[in-house]
Amino acid sequence: MLRYAASRLFRAILTIWIAVTVTFFLLRLLPADPTLLVVEGDMTPEMQDALRSQYGLDQPILQQYVLYLGQLVQGNLGVSFRQLVPVSELLLNRLPWTLLLAGSAFVLTLLIGIPLGVKAAVGRGGTVDRGVQFFGITSNALFIPSVAILLLVVFGSNLGWFPIGQAIDPDTRGLAAYASLLHHLALPLFSLVLVQLGPYALTLRTNMVEVLGEDYITSARSRGLTHRRVVWRHALRNAVLPALMLMGLQLGTLIGGAVLTETVFAYPGVGRLIFESVQQLDFPVLQGAFVILAVTVVLANLLTDLLSMVLNPRIRT
Amino acid sequence: MSTEPQSLKVDTPTAALTSTRRRRSGGFFSAPSGWLSVGTLGLFALVAIFGPLFVDSPSGLGTDILQSPSASHWFGTDDLGQDVFAQVVWGTRISLLVGAVASLIAICIGTLLGLAAAYVKRLDPVVTTATDVMLSLPMLPLMILVTALAGPSVVTLITVIGLLSWPEVTRMIRANGLVVAAMPYIDGARVLGAGASRIISREILPAVMPLVVVNVLLTAARAVIAEAGLSFLGMGDPSAWSWGRILLNAQRSGTIATAWWQTLFPSLAILLLVLAATIAGIRYNDSRDPRTRGV
Predict the structure, then answer these.
(1) Which end of chain B offers a freer environment for a tag, N or C, measured as fewer CB atoms within 10 Å?
(2) What's this model's pTM, rounded to 2 decimal places?
(3) By C-alpha distance, which of A234, A250, A235, A236 is closest to A200?
């Protein structure tokens, strides 16, 4: 068990290191010269040199790399070109909202997806099963901004049931603040879940169908256990574990979806920040956003792996 | 880039392997989903190739601003008076181009790595780790960063999406390649003195070829969504129309709440194209699977 946990931890660190290294070399190899992007207009060569040494760009690349890693470990992601604020500060203000959105989408997808997948697998060929298969393929083809815009237009502007923009009404306090939070979260969350749920339920169904055909299920049935007990106790356990790990692998896609959803709803998370920074060509923010989202995804993935480990007797021993 | 078609995981060692030429002819078009999906794909291809010859490039500053769909403007006009139908037609060319070429790049890299990992034992851990690492990173933010640095253009989009979409392909091809590599006839080829590159290209590749075809379609579907996502975030080619850019324009001009035609039609185009590619992929796979053939 400890060995498994250690190997997962090693994989997580390796992934973060690769993400960070790739980012560094991308910034150095691609044509964009950071000094040309800081200020628009003419700069004398002396000014450029001064800027380069300020950013450490006049040193050998390996030294720059070590310097960069050192800064990262201290949480220094550079300074935003446009807003002249530390990138880490910008990102940390936005990250909680993205975590809230993506985290709730993750939990909700599991909560709806598992019963849906099980029902489909148990009643193979039935209405639920057909529905899940149809929904699985369709929702896999949905483009998140399209879904988000549709929901925003129908439930936000036309019916006026949900607010548009922002994540919370700043004037509310106490319980009303939580209500406002949920109210603002509803539409972005729903668009994200709608797109995630289909493929997830479909995968769970496939796993479950396989598990239901195994010998130990037949044996449990022949021992006279109730149908309900066999399905929800014996089969589900072995179908959910791969499904949970799969959901962990899906986290990267989930975060990508959150970026698009936040953009449509002007939800103040990291994704919306990315959209704003793209328009201003604010590279340090884009780089920092990728690094922080990568770290988030890898850590969340590690958590799901460790959770599956605790739940799975085969790995636990 | 919405969701990775994990669910469409083509579970096929047997399906792909037992296929024979004889089987190919019957299955695919025997179900309506077969010819419907291929027909839709064909239609999109025709629009992409010939559409811009018949429809003028959408140019700005007309007087018909924000018109709803009518006989003169089938899909209405945007806030600058540009015809949305023309935008969708011209966008089809870019979306299809990016989807097809990026998919081919990803397929070439993915198949090569997958087969190499399946046959050459020493390479396997490296390729598997690289694949897992890539799959666990948030791809969209990475694509945004790279595209922003390289400068947005159609070529950039194709390269970035193509170079970052191979891991899914590698994973699937490797899994199938491992099954093939363990078969007795591969040992036979080795005994007869065939080298690794010959065994991979002449013996294993033909066996996994059907799966490669499926992957071309699924990867192209993902690439179309990725392109739309990047364009929607403002990373598209500023001089070329694409479906994502039409949505971005609507978002920027604040007309999404009123001008439903500006977002509906490009959205439908994305949905139809991706759905058709996905269903064609699934159908192709099913039609070669003896268990589901003819269903």
Answers:
(1) C
(2) 0.84
(3) A250
